Amino acid sequence: MTALLSIRGVEAAYGAIVALKGVDLEVNQGEIVTLIGSNGAGKSTLMMTIFGNPRARRGSIAFDGRDITALPTHEIARLRIAQSPEGRRIFPRMTVYENLQMGAELDGAAHFREDLERMLAIFPRLKERLHQRGGTMSGGEQQMLAIARALMARPRLLLLDEPSLGLAPLIAKQIFAVVADLNRREGMTVFLVEQNAYHALKLAHRGYVMVTGQITMSGTGAELLANPDVKAAYLEGGAH
């Protein structure tokens, strides 16, 4: 398998606080890989470091064989890496349609009409809300919009940061089903940071466990689901 994203010995810090302490991780073409860990473990920091904010102090990040460690964020996005960040961060005053236009800008909007139709087929709820302001929608609808906006850029790698955060279990399940479908039908490569370890590991081909800025365990999704340490730390009561 070819590593599409390769992270080697990455350290990152906020001032004096070291958030990542020599992280090694890779995501192969066509895989769903998840990173699980408790709150404050450094998962979201790793996501943001891939995009150059904060910058890696040590180590390297490569995408499709190219070193992107020192590239500016907008150039990283141009390589067709798209992110749906934690907390959704849609443009609340813009309509659903305008939000999706913003996602397509990187692609020069060349395929806008075709991609818009595709997003509305994947997320039928957004079709009903197309001319509604993003900020007036439910949390689940906003999460659908955040993912759809990222997909409008036709990414080769989709980074999803806490997609189920704050969502009702049923809506979270729908979101995970969409991700599984994108991977199965289109071969979409996905790197997923998620606190709901049970759903994330059920979905992922492989997973990593992060504890205080370090990778402490890795394996297939099934291996980690069955691991007694993972069960005790992350899965008690998590299977819903």
TrEMBL record:
Keywords noted in UniProt: Amino-acid transport, ATP-binding, Nucleotide-binding, Transport
PROSITE patterns, per this entry? ABC_TRANSPORTER_1, ABC_TRANSPORTER_2
The yes or no answer to whether the keyword Nucleotide-binding is present is yes
An annotated GO BP = L-amino acid transport
Which residue stretches, if any, does this entry annotate as coiled coil? none
Superkingdom? Bacteria
Q: Which GO terms describe its molecular function?
A: ATP binding; ATP hydrolysis activity; branched-chain amino acid transmembrane transporter activity
| ABC transporter domain ranges (all copies) | 5-237
Q: Which InterPro entries match?
A: AAA+_ATPase (IPR003593), ABC_branched_ATPase_LivF/BraG (IPR030660), ABC_transporter-like_ATP-bd (IPR003439), ABC_transporter-like_CS (IPR017871), BCAA_Transport_ATP-bd_LivF (IPR052156), P-loop_NTPase (IPR027417)
Give the UniProt family note: Belongs to the ABC transporter superfamily.
Name the UniProt record assigns to this protein: Branched-chain amino acid transport system ATP-binding protein
